[in-house]
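Could you join me in thinking about how sequence relates to backbone shape in a protein? To get us started, please write out a protein record for me. Would you write everything just below, so we can both look at the same thing?
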Amino acid sequence: MLPRYAKAEMRQIWSMENQYRTWLDVEIAIDEAWAKRGLIPTEDLKAIQEHADFDLNRIQEIEAQTHHDVVAFTRAVSETLGDEKKWIHYGVTSTDVVDTANGLRLKQANTIIKEDLQALHQLLKEQALQYKETVMIGRTHGVHAEPTSWGFKLARWYDEITRQIRRFDEASAAVEVGQISGAVGTFANISPEVEEYVCHKLGLGVQPITSQVLPRDLHADYMATIALIGSSLESFATEIRSLQRTEIREVQEFFDKKQKGSSAMPHKRNPIGCENICGLSRVLRGYVIPSYEDIALWHERDISHSSVERILFPDATSLLDYMLKRFTNILRKLEVYPERMKANMDHTGGLIYSQRVLLKLIDQGLSREAAYDMVQPLTARAWDEGLSFEKLVHDSAEIGQYLTKEELDDAFDYRYHLRRIDQVYKRLGIE
């Protein structure tokens, strides 16, 4: 992962130091389980617990000869021990250690991501309440539709992150597992009780059955969930980018006094943070295909997935952590312009209230078709001639036969469109 997009905590989790440290944690836990079953003498276990260690440079030296990273690791660890070294890696195979340690590191990464999701979730709730009645125009197909509020948009995002938290909790639990089942997963040289001890000791779940490797559909689902969260962030960021356009400018990313928007144009204030989020979400989605292709391995195992995951796991978790933190910061410091929202809403001279006029006519007994054909020509004049739709409606003798001035004034009151927001917020638990 590029340092630019990896926070320090994530870099530490996916460092080579932590890779081997978690491998050693697994190896020691295996020996503890064997000792409980009477295989390893107490004094040997104590020596392993106190002295087993490794040197990164030494592992690299050995791997240059063996071309096998786990063998290099176990031999480097053995060099730090005496006769008790014979118990290191006893009865297990490489993937027992690697997969279980990956489960441990994924759990470490997931803890950070869950905190990120909760922070964004809480901020969305707070701002949804803050801007609940900050009225603005809702747009469909990019065209003015009917009034909504900035808070209502944020409430939709809050609900989406609620779903993403639920998805991530499920997908992350599925990969926070271990397996210590030996070659081809049959427990021939080890027992399920050892596996259960190791996983419990490390705070991992136990995968019920394996083929020497954990089934990769678990990890594919996890990667798909990460990509889906990134796509939600892209959706939110795209909305902010659109609303920051000069001709709209209803919200704007915070722009520091010393910040520069363009190397050529001093006036530029660009939504660079949201553009960054949109770009990185494409990268996250790109990780889904290789993770799906990792599911199909030859027979009980091969290592075609291994090289992929050395990239995917660090990159995907680090990117999502970065994106969640950055978007939360963007939203926290976002500049919101209620006056501009109101001015834009009034831009079409009341065209956005055409449905209200239509429905009021229907309420007076007109058929939908008759009411529609009465209102639409006035909307066409307002569009084509740049006239006030509200004035055209008030001046219409035909409409005046059915609706009073007071009824028409009510039809053009934006507050009507916000009257159900409290009910929706209550559904979401935003109170």
